[in-house]
Amino acid sequence: MSEAGFSYAFPHRDLLGVSGLNPLDVRIIFERAERHLARNAERDKKGSSLKGLTQINLFFEASTRTLASFELAGKRLGADVVNFSAGNASIKKGESLADTAETLAAMRPDLLVVRHSSPGAAKFFSELTGVSTVNAGDGAHEHPTQALLDVFTLTRRWGEIGGRRIAIVGDILHSRVARSNVSLMNLLNAEVRLCGPATLLPADADRWGATVFHDLDAALEGCDAVMTLRIQRERMAGGLIPSEREYAALYGLTHDRLETAQPDCLVMHPGPMNRGVEITSALADDPERSTILDQVEAGVAIRMAVLELIAERSGERTEITP
Ligand code: NCD
Predict the structure, then answer these.
(1) pTM over 0.85
(2) Residue 116, strand partner residues
(3) Residue of 57, 146, 300 best suited for mutating to test ligand 1, as the one with most atoms within 8 Å of CB
(4) Among 5, 150, 169, 248, which has the minimal tally of Cβ within 10 Å of its Cβ?
């Protein structure tokens, strides 16, 4: 039974993407996360719902905040957490992804958290190992916990995001954060706008359920929130922007640029942030506007909620299949 007074069991044993979630799933995740957020502000943060379970964080791409966030989430729920990162993984020694998956499965983990540069990698691990898996970013495809923590942050400010106008600005082409956020914001009936130079917008962006803009002032008109993204050079084949200075002049967020937005327009960034390029320091650090640190704090709570919910579901499955 959910706190909202209806009976609905979270049905997923993996979280591979936002697609596949319905509004009730999101509501259950947010209710859980709200409780974890409160507990995380206390001195004693330690729960025991994942006690006895082993969580492996398998990161084939560099990460600071997402890895730390998943590690803290697992530990605060009492799981034994092991991090494998690309630098020391056998994949560097020529092992195939399938061999890595089978080797890890033989260690009998209960939860996998996977980040990889290839779309579909987390699904591959889930299918091959049968272990409950969270996608922590697969190429430019999906990053569902990031979208959940972003929308959770907005929901806590506004009550709900339905009917709100939100712009996502920058390197949409290479961004799994943008893809997952557009899906989730659409699911919850927000109006989503995408803005960036044509070279950084996917060819099919107009079919994402968002309105596409190339002019930042037009995109920001009437917006309740704007999320700006880093230029993801590591995912670019060639130079898709002329220079950082020119990019900053056209698409960098500043206090002045927000003039056409709602007076209380919030400013978001998933991090890592390049100050002076996609956002000025003054705006990133503006306590009235910036939600950046709230997003990081929400991230741990959201990941705790997701790990707990999928672990409960996979536990049920184990019981009925001896
Ligand atoms: C993002 C990612 O890795 O997709 N970062 C994150 O998870 N906080 C965005 C990025 O790399 O720019």
Answers:
(1) yes
(2) 138
(3) 146
(4) 5
**CATH architecture of structural domain 144-296:** 3-Layer(aba) Sandwich (3.40)
CA of 177 to the centre of ligand 1 (A): 7
Cα of 238 vs centre of ligand 1, distance in Å, is 20
The SS3 assignment for 112 reads: strand
Question: Could you tell me which residues come within 8 angstroms of residue 209 by beta carbon, excluding any fewer than 6 positions away?
Answer: 182, 186, 192
DSSP 8-state symbol, 235:
G
Cβ burial of 177 (10 Å; 0-12, 13-18, 19+) is buried
Q: What is the pLDDT of residues 73-128, one digit of tens each?
A: 999 999 999 998 866 556 666 678 888 889 999 999 999 999 999 999 999 999 99
Q: Whose CA is nearest to atom 7 of ligand 1?
A: 66
Domains 23-141+298-313 and 144-296 share a fold: yes
Residue 252: alpha-carbon gap to chain centroid = 22
Domain ranges for the chain, please list them.
23-141+298-313, 144-296
Summarize pLDDT for 127-182 with one digit per residue, the tens.
Answer: 999 999 999 999 999 999 999 999 999 999 999 999 999 999 999 999 999 999 99
Is the domain 23-141+298-313 a CATH 1.10.357.10 member?
no
Cβ–Cβ < 8 Å for 143, 168: no
Q: How far away, in angstroms, is 64 Cα from ligand 1 center?
A: 9
**Residue 119: is the preceding peptide bond cis (ω within 30°)?**
no
Q: In angstroms, what CA-CA distances link 308 with 14, 29, 55, 129, 314?
A: 11, 10, 11, 19, 10
